[in-house]
Specification:
Keywords: Metal-binding. One of its GO terms (molecular function) is metal ion binding. It comes from Pseudoxanthomonas winnipegensis. Belongs to the DinB family. The protein is mostly helical. The protein has a single domain (about 5-175), classed as dinb family like domain (Four Helix Bundle (Hemerythrin (Met), subunit A)), CATH 1.20.120.450. The protein has seven helices and two strands. The protein has helices at about 5-25, 30-35, 45-60, 70-75, 90-110, 115-120, 135-160, and strands spanning about 120-125, 130-135. Strands 1-2 form a two-stranded antiparallel sheet. A hairpin with a 5-residue loop joins strand 1 and strand 2. Helix 1 packs antiparallel against helix 5 and helix 1 packs parallel to helix 7. It is globular, with a radius of gyration of 16 Å.
Length: about 180
């Protein structure tokens, strides 16, 4: 992971989330909340989990003293206490949350430096266990986690009759960068 790669992944994240939510919006809310036997159950719960994970990690990334801009941006995004915590009461509210969070991610990714990525971050997981990991590894995990669960959501949407289309990083339009 490099600073340029983080910026690329933030752009891809924003683009794919927009497409994923536009595709999901074609379904009625009841279909979005229908348990489909996936790890998080429904399409909406899977999309919610991605937002939960992103919010938790951003709060961890905001710990260093130099991350005051990220801390300020997260004022409107309280730290979730569970990986399944519902962040919004409706799909429309979750879509707005996602779009705002993606703006924070894009801004934050643009601030990453080689010096930051070479350092380590001490953080606690949701169970309270402390870890020390390299920033490079954690930022890579952050973006990989999104992609992994969007793949699950894409499959659930396809099974519900909605094709999200190409999801490959190489399909990211240059105007999204």
């Amino acid at each position: 992971m490099t600073p340029d790669a983080a910026v690329l992944m933030a752009a891809y994240n924003r683009w794919m989330n927009r497409r994923m939510y536009e595709a999901a919006a074609q379904l009625p809310e009841a279909a979005l909340r229908q348990d489909r036997g996936a790890f998080f159950g429904s399409i909406q719960a899977t999309l919610n989990h991605i937002a939960v994970g992103d919010t938790i990690w951003l709060h961890r990334f905001a710990q260093p003293e130099a991350a005051s801009a990220l801390r300020e941006a997260l004022r409107h995004f309280p730290l979730p206490t569970s990986l399944r915590q519902e962040l919004a009461g409706s799909f429309t509210e979750l879509q707005r949350y996602r779009a705002a969070l993606d703006a924070v991610i894009a801004q934050w990714a643009g601030t990453l430096t080689e010096a930051r990525l070479e350092g380590e971050l001490v953080y606690r997981n949701t169970a309270g266990k402390t870890f020390t990991r390299s920033w490079r590894q954690l930022v890579l995990h952050f973006f990989n986690h999104q992609t992994h669960h969007r793949g699950q959501a894409s499959t659930l949407l396809f099974q519900a009759g909605i094709d999200v289309g190409a999801t490959d990083l190489i399909a990211l339009p240059t105007e999204e960068l």
